[in-house]
Amino acid sequence: MEITSVALQAQVKQHLGDLAAAVDATARDAAFTEGLRNMARFWRYSVLNQAYIRIQRKDATRVAGRLAWEAIGRKVKPGEESMFVLAPSRYSSGSARFVSVAVYDIKQTRGRKFQELDLLLTGRTRHTRTMERAAKALGIEVAYVPFGEPATGRSLGGRIEIQPGLPSMERTATLAHELAHELLHQTEDRRQERMKRPGRRHTHSEMETEADATAYVVMSVLGLPSKAPSYIPWQGGSGLTVLRAMTRVQRTVKMILEAGGVSDANGTMRRPLLVSTPNVQAQDRPRQGSGKPPSMGEATQLPTRATG
């Protein structure tokens, strides 16, 4: 039994209308705006500095210098011992050098609440297997492997890589997002390359909006939550961008759900999910820490999804 286009179209229209309103409301939210400003103030440390931070303080999560903390209304607590990282500098002659710079973890500070974007889903769901089954049916390989990007997953064209240790809810959302990239963007790129006729290139914001709007509808049909209302404006999308993508999203949602064994627009499964897809490269691995990518010590550790 196929998902009828009429039933799905009604679902997609309803879900995307709700998402568009939520995206615009989030973009206007003061806490969201402050979270974006905080991301701009903080920077990501090099792999070497991450190692230094980890050696000095294993539980560090948000790290910055004294002045950076004071700029957002927080002060280093009296008696706190600083960590040190290496920062590039120059001698008066112009030659490059590195100097030690004192930094502090957020737990060593106090003051105004630190606003940050919460983009990671927690909790458990059986529908990770639905997305794995969809990938198999669509001929897309799935691998749970660590990679050196601050992202939960990436689409590589015929292969999706997911960071191991994610909560199953986030893993499901990331699989849906990356499947959307595979079907919407990687397929387009291959077709244009095969025809040797370049088409319109979508912007990064458009691609991320389409992928997460698709994931939002898939998760909604399956009765699961989504972080799309925060993720899309963070990537530069808007409610209008969401609505413009409706036709492409509807087509992609139908492909993913049918490939995953969903028989109707209400999320009913054709058969029970008793076992994981047999040829998916790696099975669920134990959750590691908070489920974030292995980038401990970065000043900003917000999970993202990448197109590869």
Defining traits:
single chain, 308 residues, alpha/beta, 2 domains, four-stranded mixed β-sheet, three-stranded antiparallel β-sheet, 44% helix, elongated
Task: Explain what the structure shows.
Helices cover 44% and strands 13% of the residues. It has 308 residues and is of the alpha/beta class. The strands form 3 sheets. Strands 6-8-7-9 form a 4-stranded mixed β-sheet, with helices on one face. A 3-stranded antiparallel β-sheet has the order 1-4-3. The protein has a two-stranded antiparallel sheet with strand order 2-5. A hairpin with a 3-residue loop joins strand 7 (153-155) and strand 8 (159-162). Residues 272-303 have low confidence and may be disordered.
The number of distinct structural domains comes to 2
Distance between the termini: 34 Å
Task: Name the shape in a single word.
Answer: elongated
Largest sheet: 4 strands, mixed
Please compute the radius of gyration using only Cα atoms: 21 Å
| DSSP E strands, number | 9
Amount of helix: 40-55%
Q: Order of helices and strands, N to C?
A: HHHEHEEEEHEEEHHHHHE
Question: Mean pLDDT, as a whole number?
Answer: 81
Strand order of the largest sheet: 6-8-7-9
